[in-house]
Design goal:
Belongs to the CorA metal ion transporter (MIT) (TC 1.A.35) family. The protein has 323 residues and is an alpha+beta fold. The protein has eight helices and nine strands.
């Protein structure tokens, strides 16, 4: 998809050069080769492809060429089934902004509506800062939802939930999956914020000769917002690590309880087996061999060797709490 955005006008699909006349912002969304070639011709600038935007070195993500500033960063997005972090790219010139993305983002739609509703003509620099503000605001909203999800996860971990026997392992796996999902999401948001921070700093340095004071102030505000969100992400990452340690600790306790039960079962089976083995030997001079109460004596000894250890383990709390 190839859209052209003009101040005070709704977005328009671009199929020919005439469709982009007067546009301040050209937005390429998962472009085809034909759309990419048309955008390159209209902008008279090289427009990066997906392979270029996927590169991770700073020299490939942030650089200038003639009077154009090239910017790229990964930007997290949550779909119905998974987390994705495709790259987005910008080509900023004094007259036009070209954006290249491979997924739909609500922040781009918000910026497009603000541009369409604006009564004041906006420059390419205005549009870029408008986009950065919208992206940062959207990430802040996403992080609020992550914080709420972590709070609920914390309550689930520490609420003392006791699932029915046979479902404890499933509950534990679900908790660990939620912890891992939260850490993945926090990590992707951190990468996105790092890229946006570098973009904001690079733009402020390379375009300071032409940026108006108001835009410089707004860009500084974006930097401060990104810094505060980075602090929030760090706090959330620490909380995720704490919840992971707590969940693993509870799992270890559960495993120890299981080992206690196995120990009790093994222990109480030794004594009666030993008694049965002794009195099952067919030696002529066994003292109790002709004793009329020998059978009941052996049964009583075996029963006592089971009951007494069970009572001892119970009083120690291995089989439940002592009332």
């Amino acid at each position: 998809m190839f859209l052209a955005h003009r101040t005070g006008q709704p977005a328009r699909a671009v199929e020919t050069e005439a469709d982009a006349a007067g546009a301040t912002w050209l937005d390429l969304i998962d472009p085809t080769d034909a759309e990419h070639a048309l955008a390159t011709k209209i902008a008279s600038q090289d427009i990066p492809r997906r392979a270029n935007l996927d590169e991770i070195e700073s020299s490939s993500r942030l650089f200038t060429h003639d009077d154009a500033v090239y910017l790229s960063t990964p930007l997290v997005r949550r779909t119905e089934t998974e987390l994705v972090c495709p790259p987005i790219g910008f080509v900023l010139t004094p007259k036009i902004l070209i954006s290249v993305r491979f997924s739909q983002y609500a922040s781009f739609d918000i910026a497009a509506r603000q541009l369409a509703d604006s009564a004041t003509p906006l420059s390419s620099d205005d549009v870029l800062i408008l986009l950065l503000e919208a992206i940062v605001d959207r990430l802040a909203d996403v992080l609020e939802h992550v914080g709420l999800a972590l709070n609920q996860l914390s309550r689930d971990v520490f609420a003392g939930y006791s699932p029915q026997a046979g479902r404890i392992a499933a509950w534990q796996r679900a908790i660990l999956r939620r912890v891992g999902h939260s850490e993945d999401f926090s990590s992707l948001v951190r990468d996105s914020l790092l890229g946006l921070d570098r973009i904001a700093i690079f733009v402020s340095e390379t375009t300071k000769h032409r940026l108006a004071h108001s835009l410089t102030t707004r860009l500084a505000t974006v930097n401060r917002d990104i810094a505060s969100l980075n602090d929030f992400v760090s706090q959330q990452s620490n909380k995720v690590q704490f919840l992971l340690d707590a969940a693993l600790g509870f799992i270890s306790i559960e495993q120890n309880d299981g080992m206690k039960i196995l120990t009790v079962v093994s222990f109480i089976g030794v004594a009666p087996t030993l008694i049965a083995g002794v009195y099952g030997m067919n030696f002529k001079d066994i003292p109790e061999l002709t004793w009329s109460f020998g059978y009941w004596y052996a049964l009583t000894a075996m029963a006592s060797s089971v009951i007494l250890p069970l009572l001892w383990f119970w009083r120690r709390g291995w089989l439940g709490e002592v009332k």
